[in-house]
Amino acid sequence: MVSGEYREAVARALEHVGIGDLRDRPFKDLSGGQKQRVLIARALASDPQILVLDEPTNGMDPSSRISILDLIKQLPDDDALTITMVSHLLDDVANHVQRIALVEPGVFLVGDINVFGFLIIPLLRQCSSPDGSRRFFSSPR
After folding, report:
1. For residues 60-81, b (16+ Cβ closer than 10 Å) or e, as one string?
2. Which of 2, 17, 18, 33 could crosslink 37 through cysteines, CB 3.0-4.6 Å?
3. Sign of torsion, CA 73 74 77 78?
4. What pLDDT, in 10s, does the model give residues 22-38?
5. SS3 annotation, the chain
6. What pLDDT digit, counting tens, does each position of 6-23 carry?
């Protein structure tokens, strides 16, 4: 049986991530972005100090990706929360984080996005796959 206190925490978390109105809708009927918000709310309901997200925008359309990244960006300010996120979408993520770690074959950088972020994007555009068949992050900035 779920306690009333936990139900209240869940309701607050759903409101916090902007989907309180979907509380009674089955998970299977939600969009990808709504499902991700439910999963983030589920984690927030336990009042964590650290939130680890693995590809939280994977498979989403561009507007849903930006919406989720905007939510993730505001969470640390609202909740005194540290977020660690893994993503292959550097062009999207670079505008929504404070610090970044770049791990590619032959490249490992960690730092404040405002200090050396301008170095990362051009560097990534020059990184090729190990066999030279494709380039990473080649979209214009």
Report:
1. beeebbbbbbebbeebeeebeb
2. 17
3. negative
4. 999 999 999 989 999 99
5. CCCHHHHHHHHHHHHHCCCHHHCCCCHHHCCHHHHHHHHHHHHHCCCCCEEEEECCCCCCCHHHHHHHHHHHHHHHHHHCCEEEEECCCHHHHCCCCCEEEEEECCEEEEEEHHHHHHHHHHHHHHCECCCCCCECCCCCC
6. 889 999 999 999 999 999
Domain boundaries, the chain: 4-97
Domain boundaries 4-97, corresponding CATH code: 3.40.50.300
CA dihedral 43, 50, 52, 109 (to 10 degrees): 160
Predicted confidence (pLDDT) per residue in 103-113, tens digit: 777 777 787 77
